[in-house]
Predict the structure of Vanillate O-demethylase monooxygenase subunit.
Amino acid sequence: MTRCDPGHKLRGMTTAFVPDQWYVAAYTREVTRELFTRTVCGESILFWRTVDGAVTAMSDRCVHRRFPLSEKPSHLVGDTVVCGYHGFTYGADGVCVAVPGQSRVPRTARLRSYPVVEQDSFVWVFIGDPALAATTRIPRAPWLDLPGWTVVSGMEPLAARASLLVDNLLDLSHETYLHGGYIGTPEVAETPITTEVDEEAGIVYVSRHMADAACPPFYANSTGITGRITRWQDIEYTPPCLYLLHSRIAPAGVLPNEDGSDPDAFHVEVVYAITPETEGSTHDFWAVARDFALDDEDVSDYLAKSNRTVVLQDVAALDTLEKVIAGEPDGYQELSINIDTGGLAARRMIARMRDR
Ligand code: FES
Ligand SMILES: [Fe+2]
């Protein structure tokens, strides 16, 4: 069985990679007939589409002398990839079909291939024992690929371990301080959260419902609301990779109808995929889906720009934390309070998944 190799341990590391799980490797738009590479959980993976459009995922290291197959002059010929160093040629399943100078292809000449699925605008790759892929759930983010929703999205590289991003996203009280002027207002930090854990489903829920709050620019400028708002933040995190923030914004006092319909509110689904690149770096995929102003490109541009700014504020803070942790002596004790219950629940769930 091949498991995700945790590699060298970094100082202060509390969560290594979780093996035998699906991870977001890319947006579907990133994988084309060009060779594309991304490192997931320390494994360099080559992605490309067959002539028929299917996504393939295989090791990005030629079995001969390790030349990266994503590196020019490696190239595609039909449904094969030709190594740019000495010409080993591999099919879409990673099996070598031709080598130079001899007709016999060694039986062991095959690239490791990875289970791969396109879903909800993401390319998901399974890291671990491929035999477990079919029975391991891929969490859903349907709004990213659903009529009635408009999406802006991106990915920022993070020079910090994935667990720092999990901490960050599970505790949104930091919006007030780190993201003031964008999505933070005093009420976010002031309002207590509720945390629930569904062990069976493997989901951590964190909710903060603000009955009467200031409307931050992010929502004022996109919805047009000018006064106070009722603002709900409902987090649904499925470790290790998929984080959803169901955000509901309405004029203060406006609640959903008894039948669950909610025509007078604005809904934003904020989606993050937290994919470890190495033990100390992370792919920070972010997307913002909305059910209003669907065709308004100014709103799309504004939300894309603002959300990217917010993500980069987090990236700067977490990159700093990674350096702090790397440079500190062993034994530092964090202090946790009520705002941390979601993050601590996520840590426990991840540790159980990793160690089972
Ligand atoms: S390294 Fe790929 S063919 Fe030699
Ligand atoms: Fe943040």
In short: The longest strand covers residues 266-278.
